[in-house]
Structures are given as structure tokens and as C-alpha cells.
Amino acid sequence: MKHSDLNQGILRAYLDCQLDPEHVSAVEEHVNNCAACQREVRVLGEYAACVREGLDRLPQLPEAANVAIAWAAFQRKREDAMASEQSKWTLWKKLSLAGGGLAVAGLVLALTVAPVRAWAESLLAIFRVEHFTVLEINPDTLKSNGPQNNQMLNQTVGRMLSDEVTVTQKPQKPQLVADAAAASKLAGFPVQLLSGATPAALVFEGGAGVQMKLDQDRLQSILDEAGRNDLHIPSSINGATIGVRVPAGIMAFYGNCGDAPSRLLGQASDSDHQHHVVVGIGGGSNKSHQEADATCVALMELPSPTVSAPAEIDPAQIAQVVLQFLGMSANDAASFTQTVDWTSTLVLPVVRGGSSYEQVHVNGNEGALLRPAGPRQSDRFSLMWVENGIVHALNGTGDDTTAINLASQLE
Amino acid sequence: MSMAASWVEVEFEAIFREHYQRMVRVTRRVLRCDSEAEEVCTEVFLRLYRSGPGVAAGGLVGGWLYRTATRASIDALRANQRHSLEEELEGASSGPNEDSADGPLTRLLRGERIAEVRTVLTRLRVEKAQILLLRYSGLSYKEIAEAMQISANSVGTMLARAEAEFSTLYERRHQFSRKTSQLETAKERR
């Protein structure tokens, strides 16, 4: 074996007798005749001895715990945990729904990588929303760090959320309400509905709040697992607690929206979406849902979600990391972040070729109109705007004029 | 991809029985007491239960468990360190209690050394602390590769780096605390 074939890792494994049997003799022969490698092995051995000396000081369990008792205790704990579990996942589903209406029923934006979406939503959608900006992402850069890591990343993100998130205000089960007056009373803001039309379902969703503790290492490990260890999470965020509050809001459904209203009300297969949410926050792997047809119009109204974060957190700095993760070059990310007020703008990431978008005016406010690409769906629209501090998302079928006309009929 | 699948109780119990004791042993090394280690491990199994059997599908459930358990115990260790610092600051005046078989000085010294090792572990990046914990709890390179989701070939390199960093920090702390105690003794003599 040549000297250049050896490295520290091989020598370390050699020292631990952890090399494949077929390599051992070749390594041994080389080391016996190479002074440099002998020195290296000695140094590695000294380090190992020091670690052994240190770690051996740590206590070890003399008697293994009784596993039958442990199993019984686990079963009890699991029962308790499962009972309180539901609310947390429901909340995250709601957050992703509120976060700009990305996952509003009927229209799933063509972001194919769930963890990216989760990232974008949880990091970008958290500030008070006053404007929307659409950011086009090159799908090729997403693919390269996507599918093969997808499931693992999903699990990591899901676990992080389950570990670091504390619910400060428990969301209540969504409920049906009779009319705009009743909805306004519950929601605490004047709810507007389409004039001259009666919604097939009007659903009220109570407010919710969470706190999330940011852990630099943990976030970094997500980047690492995605193969992006060239990106670094700023150390200023470490240990910071971010509070997110999502106010109460309403969803109104008109026409035939399939089972979307009943899914929102939690009447359709609850156990399903629980796992679904663990794996891919908001949308994505759609199962056999009852499809909405072209008559379906879904409207969401919700005062802007707000976020509280320590002053030392610089949203632009975090955004730069996220943008690079989404495939932007460092320079592009830096210049893009300068064009946006990160404390008031929700950035909607759309995949180039996956959807089309344009900036429009809705009742004198700036808004974003998005459409999925592809012949079957291209007549569906999702129109988002902010009016008097209320985030609106209107989903339906038709051309641009139809969309904007519909929006102007709110009263 | 069906996400609705849930655990078959028998399968889950088998996994629990196979790994629980070893996990408690690994995590107990960094945590302050048995109950804390047991709690961390139970929590990890809860997480596994919630994630559904997908994790186990590739035969990698052992790796997942060790990775998650070591990670969780190092997180808990970090939290503990913050607590004990606060306790020290608050209760600095209360002396050590005297009811152990060893003399108070021996116990104090032993406790200090354990604290030193733990402090060094919290100073390392989590992955490095994890790999040390796993290796020195007797996991093979292959098991570590599975647990850390890295290739078997890079275990040696990662381990060597972690050991070098641990040694440097540990030696430094050691010298520091020796010097401090020498200074204290010198002061007392005067």
C-alpha cells in the first residue's frame, strides 16, 4: 500500500481493529516501514487514551434497568403523550396555512421539496405580513439536494419542530359558523364575504401561538444533512426564543370544493394528516381526496401572523442562508435581501416553470397572483393581498380579471 | 408513499426490548442520574413511535435510536450545565453534605473531574460529542456509521478529529484547574 493511499481515518480504524480484514495486512506492512505513519498512529493513540481516560470517569449503569418495567412505564407515558399530541400538529398545519395561504385548499404551489417549504415557511413567513414578494427558484438546484435526502430531511425537520416547539396558545378545533356577523364576532375583525353569494361552508379557526427555541447546531445539522455544509447558520440566533402568534381567522368555501371544508374541520381521516404533517408540513403528498371542481372558490382571511424575536436576530442574515439553500448564489442572495424589508414582507417561493405569478392591484393594494403551470391546472389562481392588516387569500378558477373582480366583491 | 401506517405493537415492543437497556447505558454516561437517562430514552422511543414504522423500514432503526438518544442526552447535558451554573451562583455558600462513604475531598475531586469531562463534551460540536459517546460505549464503526448516517469510511476520520479536539480541550481545562488549586493552596499557606 502506498503512503498516499493512507489517511488519518484509515490509521484510526487500524488502531481500533476496525478495518476490513482484507486491508489490515497491507496497512500493517506499510506502517511497519513508515516512520511518519508510526508517528501518526502514536499521536492518534495518545488522543484516544486521553478520551478513554476522560470518558471512563463518567458513571455507567452497573445493573441494567429492568426492561419489562420500562416497557410498562413507556406504554403509560405514550398514552398521555398521544392525547396531548394532536394539538401541536394541528397548530403547525395551521401555521403553514396561515403563512401566506401557501397550502390553502385546492391549490398546492409547485414546491416539490417539503423541507424547503417547511424552512421557507417557518423562517420567512413569521414576520408581520404587509407585502408579498415572489421569488423564483431554479428547479435544477433544488433537485440536486432534493429527493435522495428528502425523507431523512423531512424527519429531521419534523423532529426538530416536535422538540423545540412549545405551544403557548392551544388552537381549538375549527368550527362552522352561520354568517359574517357571527364570524366577525368570534374572530374580532370585520369579516368580508363575497356579496350576493352564500358560502357552502364558513369555518372559524381560533388563534394559536407557539414558541420555538433556535439551536444553531441543530439547524446547521439540517443544512449538513442536505449536503450544504458550505452554508453557516449565524451564531447570533443560538438559544434565541422566537414567539409566533397566529390570530383567529376564517375560511369561506363557495361552490363545490370537494372534501376541503370537512378536512379543515377535521372530519376526514384524522390519523392520516397527523403523519402527513409530521413528514411534510402543509400540502405535498396528496392522497385520494375528493377533488374540488371549477365552481370552487376558497377565501381565507386572517390578521397578519406576528413574530417576536430578540433584537440581535437579523432576519436578512437568516434569509440569505435560506435563499442560498434554495439555490441562489451568495451574491444574488445578498443583493436580493437588500431589496426586501424582511420584517414586513412574506416571500413566496415559486419554482421556475412550476408556477407563474404576477404583481397585481387588488382594491388599491398590492397583491400577488399565482398560478400553477401545466395545461390541466393553469386556469386555477391563488390571489393574495393585505388589506387593512388582514391577509387575504382567494383561490378559484378563471382568468386574471375574474380573480380581481371576485376580490372586489368582498364586503 | 403511505404515511398512514402505524406500528404493530408486537414489532414496536421487540424494538424497545432490544435497544432500551443499551440506550440507557449510553445516555447515562453524560446524564446526572438514572431517572434522567431513562426519561431521555423513553422520550426517544415516543418520537420513534410518532414517526411511524418508516424509520425502521430500511433496517436502520438501531442507528436512528442511538443517534437520537445521544443527541437528546447531549442537549440535556447542555441544559443541565446552564442549570448547575445558576445553582452554583445562587447556592455558593452551601457546603457539600458529609454522608457518603468517601471523604468529602475525594468526592469533591471526583465530582469535579466528571464535571470537567462533561463540560468538554458540551464544548464540542454535537456530532463530535455523539461519535465519542457512541464509540466509547462500545459501538462498532459499522454501527456508528449507521447511527450517524455517514459512510463507514469516514468514521475513522471523524472519530480522530473528535478525539484530537476533546484531548486538547480536556488537557487545557485540566491544567487550568490544577493551576487554580495550586494557587488556592499557596494562598492558604500564606
The counted number of beta strands of chain A is 14
Strand ordering within the main sheet of chain A: 3-4-7-8-14-13-12-11
Number of domains of chain B: 1
H/I helix tally of chain B: 8
| Percentage of residues in helical conformation of chain B | over 70%
Strand proportion of chain B: under 5%
Specify the overall morphology of chain A. Answer: elongated
* Biggest interchain interface, per-side counts: A-B, 55 and 63 residues
- The dominant shape of chain B is elongated
Count up the helices of chain A. 14
- What is the structural class of chain B? mainly alpha
Q: End-to-end span of chain B in angstroms?
A: 75 Å
Q: What labels describe this entry?
A:
heterodimer; A: 411 residues; alpha+beta; 8-stranded antiparallel β-sheet; 4-stranded antiparallel β-sheet; 14 helices; 14 strands; elongated; B: 190 residues; mainly alpha; 8 helices
What features would you describe in this structure?
The complex is a heterodimer of chains A (411) and B (190). With 411 residues, chain A is an alpha+beta fold. Chain A has one domain (84-408). Chain A is 42% helix and 21% strand. Chain A has 14 helices and 14 strands. Chain A has helices spanning 8-15, 21-32, 35-55, 67-98, 114-124, 139-144, 147-164, 180-187, 216-225, 260-264, 270-280, 315-325, 330-338, 400-408, and strands at residues 131-137, 165-169, 175-176, 201-205, 208-213, 241-246, 249-254, 297-303, 306-308, 345-351, 355-362, 365-372, 380-387, 390-397. In chain A, a hairpin with a 2-residue loop joins strand 11 (355-362) and strand 12 (365-372). In chain A, helix 5 (114-124) packs parallel to helix 7. The N and C termini of chain A lie far apart (81 Å). The relative contact order of chain A is 0.15. The model of chain A is unreliable at 86-128, 142-150 and 268-288 (pLDDT under 50). Chain B is mainly alpha-helical and 190 residues long. Chain B has one domain. Helix content of chain B is 78%, strand content 0%. Chain B is built from eight helices and no strands. At the A-B interface, helix 1, helix 3, helix 4, helix 7 and helix 9 of A face helix 1, helix 2, helix 4, helix 5 and helix 6 of B.
